[in-house]
Design a protein that fits this description.
This protein has five helices and 18 strands. By secondary structure, the protein is of the alpha+beta class. It has one domain: q2cbj1_9rhob like domain (Jelly Rolls, Sandwich), CATH 2.60.120. An eight-stranded mixed β-sheet has the order 1-4-14-10-18-8-7-5. Strands 6, 9, 12, 13, 15 and 16 form a six-stranded antiparallel β-sheet that branches. It has a two-stranded antiparallel sheet with strand order 2-3. The protein is globular and about 50 Å long.
């Protein structure tokens, strides 16, 4: 893939993301389900799927507007009404430097709608990957149905999150695994503007192929762009069929400023 990691752009339309304030001054991000579906329909999904097959990562440019990004990022400092279930300081656990907060159910509307609509678009790729790898697990077309499977298996805690990085912060290479049930793809959306809000802080992925050294991928994102990438492994076509490639992801050091992102993980946590 190119350094920018760009795939096809969206064809018109924006979300109506609104910030309103109730008596507890809680910011609420609102999205119409049809608007989310129309926005995602504007991407060339065959090209997205082909890029995922080639590189294990694809970028949806301008998925969110500047207003969407600001509204979501502003939620990080809102601790009212139990919008988040936990806060993690990364240095305390050896994860890197920076911090993040997991949303609690019910999720903000925009996060919930994006999670469900993106899952529906990605489930065919997830099933095709599992078939190529000889794995029996198949994923239903509905995210609600998949969450029922997670919850029945004891994975009931929400996993979408907001991440905040300051100068010198970084995220170590890792995989977002929260139990037995793992959807093979996830998404991260950059809420800050590179060059204005921060410098550094590139999304970094590594690909470990059998009997080969790891291959790094640096994905440059703009504000509102979403990167979709493999959670744990993906199939690669070889001379004798498909073989499994292990993937990890992280964030390089922030040189200046502050970087905010939203993470969409489609399986829940135990």
């Amino acid at each position: 893939m190119s350094e920018s990691g760009q795939t096809a752009g969206a064809a018109g339309g924006t979300f109506n993301a609104m910030a309103s304030t109730n008596s507890l001054a809680r910011t609420v991000v609102v999205a119409n389900e049809n608007q989310v579906a129309r926005r995602l329909a504007g991407y060339h999904w065959r090209e997205v799927e082909a890029e995922l097959d080639r590189e294990g990562v694809a970028v949806l440019q301008d998925l969110l507007t500047t207003a969407d990004c600001r509204a979501l990022a502003s939620l990080y400092h809102d601790d009212g009404e139990g919008i988040f279930r936990s806060r993690v300081v990364m240095s305390r656990h050896g994860f890197g430097k920076g911090e993040y907060k997991y949303f609690d159910y019910p999720l903000p509307d925009l996060i919930s709608q994006l999670r469900g609509a993106l899952y529906a678009r990605l489930a065919p790729t997830a099933n095709r990957w599992n078939e190529a790898l000889g794995l029996e697990v198949r994923y239903p077309s509905s995210h609600a149905e998949y969450l029922e499977r997670c919850h029945a298996g004891g994975q009931t805690r929400a996993t979408p999150l907001l991440l905040r990085y300051g100068p010198g912060d970084y995220n170590c290479l890792h995989q977002d695994l929260y139990g037995e049930h793992v959807f093979p793809l996830q998404a991260v959306i950059l809420l800050s503007q590179p060059g204005r809000d921060f410098e550094g802080g590139e999304l970094v992925l590594t690909e470990q192929r059998p009997r080969m050294q790891s291959r790094p991928l640096v994905v440059a994102l703009g504000q509102g762009d979403a990167a979709i990438f493999a959670v744990r492994h993906r199939p690669v076509q070889g001379a004798r069929g498909f073989y499994r490639v292990n993937m990890r992801h992280g964030v390089s050091r922030i040189r200046l400023g502050n970087r905010s992102t939203a993470g969409l993980i489609f399986h829940d946590s135990a």
